Amino acid sequence: MEPIKIMPCLDMKNGRVVKGVHFVNIKEAGDPVENAAFYQVEGADELAMLDIAATLENRKTRLEWVKKVSAVLSIPLTVGGGISSIEDIEMVLGAGANKVSMNSAAVKNPDLVKQAAKKYGSDKITVAIDAKRNAAMPSGFELVVSGGTLPIAKDAVAWAKQCQELGAGVILPTSMDGDGTKAGYDIPFTKAISSVVTLPVVASGGAGKLEDFYEAVVEGGASVLLAASVFHFRMLKIQDVKDYLREKGLTVA
Description:
The protein is of the alpha/beta class. 34% of the residues lie in helices and 26% in strands. The protein has helices spanning 32-42, 63-70, 86-94, 104-108, 111-120, 156-166, 187-194, 210-218, 229-232, 238-247, and strands at 5-13, 16-21, 24-28, 47-51, 77-80, 99-102, 125-133, 141-145, 150-155, 170-175, 202-203, 224-227.
């Protein structure tokens, strides 16, 4: 098994890091460049930066944020939000990102995933999947797009499988039911995704305590652990998480 990686996430709005609960009730969480530099020193293996309002505001990711943040990092940076074309990917990678994350645009145009993987390599293409519980779906999870505002009556787990077939390199599922709650990752959702793909799966949404990270790996099948609130508000240190996972017998990056 690949070593487990820890990935803090900078949700961006108006040039600042923010954090919400269930994708709303947004709170200020600091400066992106300061946060990025801090997390690298703390031992983060990768960093995610998501322009959470880009799709809703019908605009592209702010490249100046990517340039500023990537300038202080030597660890891989995944950037998402408003990426809807090969040109967008080109610009974001050119601004210093190592990987891009697509969500709504990939759902709208699955061929974009295929083209992007072919042009840049699967390892650079992450597909983010936002979902919420819906018993009417075969897996019980419905795909939601447009920054968590629009359920589209499509099965989220079937979509994850399709993304792997299209050439995506990483799947980043976020449970809207768990986001920002600090009540633990949505293990059934993470497991549902990891059991149908062979790609790295990023656990996202809801980490609140050390045990949550362990459960995401052992029960959820995740190999990358993304968290925001617990790190932004200094409830946990990255090193604490890594030490805990090692004590539990897991191999950590």
